[in-house]
Design a protein that fits this description.
The chain is built from 5 helices and 8 strands; from the N terminus they run E-E-H-H-E-E-E-H-E-H-E-E-H.
Amino acid sequence: MSDTPQYPRTVAAGKRTITLRLLERADADALLAFARALPAHDLLFLMRDIRNPKVIAAWIDQVERGLIRSLVAHDGNRMVGCTALARDELSWSPHVADIRMLISTEMRGTGFGRVLAQECLAMAMADGVSKLTVRITPDQGAALKVFEDLGFLPEALLRDHVRDASGELHDIAIMALDLDRQGGMKSAYGMG
């Protein structure tokens, strides 16, 4: 296993310095406000609507039980992003984790999405995860590019898989990264 990333710490995103730290129960209200400030379309790839306080409470409960690893990102006192690395140790796929990542509209285009995605990869490797997946709506071009650049490949397209509040159906793309295979290829080419 790799070294576990240490938090809190700061990272650069454009000209900003962002503080990353692990999600705590005290973050519930800020996380709810952050989620409610995002465009509704940005939330469609999530399994649950995190604008609901009960969903936030369940998320934090799962973090405290060690089922999800989550980071929150702050620019000063404002939450500007969050991540979740969800894994089910009791399933048939305990080696697989799902990345969930949200970024405020003001942070888009700063490279911050790539930073958060790399943080998720580092946590996954430290946890011994073999495969990562990410769910994205196909129209999220910048997010698709970030994950493609990190080596994720398309695995599935779920047509008309989610219905938004107005009743419109949307597709979900699933991308995956085999960390063991990628690590082996890097080693074979002397890259790590």
